[in-house]
Amino acid sequence: MNVFFEESGSFKAGSVLSRQGDAFQVELPGGRRAKVRAKDVLIEFDKPAAGELMQEADTAAQQIDLDFLWECAPTDEFAYTALAAEYFGATYGPVERAALVLRLHGSPVYFRRKGRGQYQRAPEEQLKMALASLERKRQQALVQAQYEEELKAGKLPEAFAGKVLGLLTRPDKNAIEYKAMEAAAGARGVSPARLMLDCGGIASPRALHEARFLAEFFPHGTGFPAVTVGPLPDDLPRADVEAFSIDDITTTEIDDAFSVEHLSDGRVRIGVHIAAPALGIVRGDAIDAIARTRLSTVYMPGDKITMLPDDVVDVFTLKEGDYRPALSLYIIVNRETQEIVANETRAELVFVKNNLRHNNLDELVNEETLAAGTGDYPHKDDIAVLWPLAQALFEKRQVARAGYGLKREVQRNTDYNFYVEGEHVTITPRRRGSPLDLIVSELAILANSTWGAFLHDHTVPGIYRSQRGFGAPGPKRTRMQTTAAPHEGLGVAQYAWSTSPLRRYVDLVNQWQLLACVQHGVTAKLAAPFKPKDADLYAVVQGFDDTYTAYADYQRRMEYFWCLRWLAQEQKKQVVASVVKGDLVRLEEIPLLLHVPGLGVHARGTRVLLDVMSLDELTIEASVRLLNVLDAPTVTSGDAADEEDDAEGGDDTLIDAEDATAETEAEALAEADGAAAGEGGEGGEATGGNAEEEGRAS
């Protein structure tokens, strides 16, 4: 005897070897033996053999007309045997019965299983809807297959127009376009991004890199809603000074300006004037909501995404030719000793006479012309006063760094400007550490340090950037916090970002707090927008730190992208580089770091000639190999030790001089240099340590 039975949701047939009570010992056609309960047996039969029955039943099941079967079935629950008589008539055997079970069980759209051998037909309306859905899926499968074939042939389907960047950045993985793209990419053995580039779905790798960033951080676009700046206080006094700013020619968010006033006793009053959007933006208003969401201006070569709308920036930027709202730090300096004898902070209107630009002054203002008093340029006398003060401030910070166990800051000689026109990039070197750079950076560091102390003295919380060593020796860890603490890398007792309120939300928050101190004095703690231990202030710190890091990573990635573009654009087949440490080298013509496998052991500064084998803008990878060693540096033993300690410190930090302020450049180098020195020169690479971001060489 044979039985047809259900096991684990599927149907089988086998020969009965024995029976004990309600259990059968069954041998399946393949030789496997199984114990089958009687309640799982649907059909008992003698002929045909078990294997033959399954084959014949499978064939017969496919011949059963489902629509007709559904018509024959009763509306109520029924046993399959009852429907067998209705469908097959009086003559049907085990093959027909098994075929019917297989057909019923395999057609859940038409019939619903209610138990062993029990079924109920689907209601007519539900059946129509289900069949329509199946037809849609069938049609979609055909379309998907067509898309897949076109993509594998290197042709972009018309339906993909305008969708490709979305498919690569924020895809609907159930969409047939996405499924076709994934399948075609797998068939061709490439990434979906590479496939879309090959098919012309994306205009360039640059477009994809930008789209990925925007999809993550600006999913609703980079535009701004309409906003209105609140009225400025009508009692702001007008300062009796004429200020000037020093920025790159492309800068539109002019945060800082300076003034020099000669006093009767031979001393000078120097003003550091910071744009004051906090005078017109209120915590919680529409503009604050925008700034709180963005947290910072995003910089990238050739472009930027501002934190504040242009209309708001225009109200507060320190553009020349008018009185502008400012938060001013005035310091009185003894010109003989360059000592600061007093300071004062005011909220006021400042007349900005000139916006000076590095591009026009760098050749005119240098150490030699300042020492000789030669040259003709705006605010020459003021710059001559600020230059020795900046030098004194720098030296004072180096003494403080030494007290923290750090060496002098290492200044890199060259920065680079990126100018992008369409898909063409121009990368130009610019001297780093010029007198103008030092003036701007030292006065900004002074303001941030002084105002950090100002907040602390008024017991008003602020957002500080600290760098301290933990253990001796130990790494200098940089963190943001709401209480004052030393920044050992910069050599200051405290450091509160306050000088870039148009481009950094932290600075805007600190400016609100500073204004409370200026306007309310001893009661500032009660009037400040953020009170001590304010949970929202902690949230700002955490959110800003994460976002600012992500923005910086994107800027660095795009700088490396444009470096690779420059190599391809200039058709550079061979390049000269200098060894940084290990297999890491830095190209001489552009700020690109590369790992060179098999480079060997060379002293830092050794110049090598590399063969550029391939460039990949999509993955931001460069394949290079060593051709030969050009020359090795000559250093004393003490210099060699310094080189080793600084090998991966601040002077390898990649900063686009076009976008970064002198303050942020100096701060970045001081922090990286401090971290490397604290770690004995064995810290992570200043470029972030990510091989892809370093323009991986393979």
UniProtKB/TrEMBL annotation:
Q: Where is the RNB domain?
A: 235-520
Question: Where are the compositionally biased (Gly residues) regions?
Answer: 677-687
Q: Show the InterPro entries listed in the entry.
A: NA-bd_OB-fold (IPR012340), RNase_II/R (IPR001900), RNR_Ribonuclease (IPR050180)
Protein name (Swiss-Prot/TrEMBL): RNB domain-containing ribonuclease
Q: Where is the composition biased (Acidic residues)?
A: 640-670
Q: Which SUPFAM superfamilies match?
A: Nucleic acid-binding proteins (SSF50249)
* Pfam families in the cross-refs: RNB (PF00773)
Q: Where is this region: Disordered?
A: 636-698
